[in-house]
Amino acid sequence: MSRSSTKKREQVALFAAAILVAIGGIIYELILGAAASYLVGDSILSFSLATGVTLFGMGIGSLLVNYIKLHPATSFATNEIILGLIGGNSVMLMYLGFVFTRSHWLIFAVISLAIGICIGLEIPLLMKMFQEFGRKSSVKLFSKILALDYFGALIASLLFPLVMLPYLGLMRSAYLVAALNIGVAVLILKQMKASKIMMTISVIATMLLLGFFIYATEIEHGIDKRTYKDPVMWQQQTPYQKIVLTRYKNDTRLFLNRNLQFSSLDEARYHETLSTSALSSVANPKRVLIMGGGDGLLARDVLKYPSVEHITLVDIDEVMTNLAKTNHLLTDINQRSLHDPRVSIVNQDAFQFAFSTKDKYDVVLIDLVDPSNEKLAKLYSEQLYRQIGNILTERGVMVTQATSSFFSPHAFYMVANTVKSSHPERYVTAFSVNVPSFGEWGFVMSAPQAEVVASQPLPKNLRYQNQKLLTFLTKQNAISVPSGPTSTLVSPRITDVYNSDMRQWRYTNSF
Ligand code: SAM
Known about the structure:
The protein has 511 residues and is an alpha/beta fold. It has 3 domains: 3-223, Growth Hormone, Chain: A (Up-down Bundle); 229-260, no CATH class; 267-503, Vaccinia Virus protein VP39 (Rossmann fold, 3-Layer(aba) Sandwich). The protein has 17 helices and 11 strands. It has helices spanning 3-40, 43-64, 72-88, 90-100, 104-132, 139-191, 196-227, 267-279, 297-302, 318-326, 328-334, 350-356, 374-377, 382-391, 409-422, 467-476, 493-502, and strands spanning 232-237, 242-248, 251-256, 259-263, 287-292, 310-314, 343-346, 361-367, 392-404, 427-435, 439-447. The strands form 2 sheets. The chain has a 7-stranded mixed beta sheet. Strands 1-2-3-4 form a 4-stranded antiparallel beta sheet, covered by helices on one side. Helix 1 (3-40) crosses helix 6, helix 6 packs across helix 7 (196-227) and helix 15 runs antiparallel to helix 17. Bound molecules: S-adenosylmethionine.
C-alpha cells in the first residue's frame, strides 16, 4: 500500500477518533448528571456538579499530557481503556455508593474527576499522534480537531436523551459509551500496528464491558434486591422514573425513584382523605380530574361516589398506568379502577394538560410525586393552581397532596401559601392525616367558600374515613398556616425548601 494512502488512512482514523471521543465525553457528563439526579433528586445541583467537576478534571488532564513519555498511540489507547473502564462502571459504582454508603456525593465527585482527567488527555494526545504521523501541529489542524469535537458534542446531546436513556437506560448507556471508547483505542492501535499486549488488553476490556452491557439489567436488579428491605417483585427504569414494586406478606409497596408512594397496609388513609375531603365538599360531583395517581388507587376511591360520571386521569408515565392496569399486585389493591368505563387515562404532563384542556371539572385532585427536583416544581406553582381555578366549575373544589406536614413542614406551608396566592378570593384550608408508612401527610384544599367543606355525605365501603373524622380533620384540626413565600415558575422555591426540609431526615428513604 502506498505511503500516501497509509497516511490518508491514519488521518481518517485520527479524525474519526476525534469525533468519537467527543461523543463519549459529553455523554459521560450527561450520564453522571442524570444518575446523580435520579439517585438524590436534585437535578440542577447534580448536572452542575457533573459538568463542573468533569471540566476541572479536563483541565488537569490537559496539563498532565506533558509528563507522559509513552508512545502517543500507546498512551492514547491506554487512556481510552482507563476511561472506558471507569466511565462504563460509573453508574454501577454510583448506585452501589448510594445504596450501601453515605458518601455517594464523594464517589460521584471522584468518578467525575477521573473521567474529566481522561477526557482532558484525549485531545492533546490526539495532537501528539498527528505529529507522530508527520502532521505539523498547526492552528489549522487544532481548529479541525476542535470543530469535530464540538460537532460530536451536538450528536451526543441529541443521542443521549432521545435514544440512549429511553431505550437503554443509564447503566447500559454507560457501558455502550465505554465500549465505544475502547473501540477507538483498538482503531488507533490497529493503525499503529501497536504491541500485541496493548491489543490484547483492549480486546479483554471491550469483552468485559460488553458483558456488563448485556447483563446491566441483572446487575441493577441485583443491587435493587439488596436495597429494598422487602423482596422486589417488579421494577423498570422508564423515561420518567424508576418504578419498583415490593411485596412482603400482605404489604405491597410502590417506590418511584426510591421514594415510597404507598404501602397497601395504610394507603387508604391517604387516598380516602384526599378523595373524600374534596368530593364531600361538592354536591353530586360529576366530572373529576386526577393529576398523577397513576397507581389507580385514588381513582378507586373516586369511583365510590355514585354521582361521578367521568374521571380524567392525567399521568405522564404510560408504563405506570399500564402497570396499574395489568399487574395483579396493583389491580388487587386498586380494584381494576383504571378499567372502569368512567375512567379515561391521558398520558401527558399534568401541567401541560391543565393549560390545554377545554373541559371544566367539579373536582380536581392532585396526587403527584413530591417536588424533589426542578422538573416537578411547576406542579406546585402559583401558575398551575391559578389555572386549576380556571378549569374548575363555579362550585368546584381542588385538593392537592402537599408533602408531609411533619417531615417537610416548610414545603407544606409553602404549598398552602401558593394555593392561597393563586386565587385569594377562594377559601383555602390545610390539614393532615397520619399514614404510618410515610408519616403525617399534608393536604391543601381550595374551595369556593368555607361552608361547603365536608358538607356532603360520604360514600359507603370506605375503609378509613368517616363523616366525623373528616369534619374533625378539615375543620377542628385544620392546620393554621403562617403566611410565607410562595413558589412560582420563575422562582421554584418549593424544591429547595422541600429538599432542605428532607435533608434533616435520614430514615425517610428507608426501604
Ligand atoms: N401518593 C403519592 C405521593 O403522595 O407522593 C403519589 C403517587 S402517584 C403514583 C404519583 C404519580 O405522579 C406517578 O404515577 C407519576 O408517574 C406521576 N407524575 C409525575 N410527574 C408527573 C407529571 N409531570 N405529570 C403527570 N403525572 C406525573
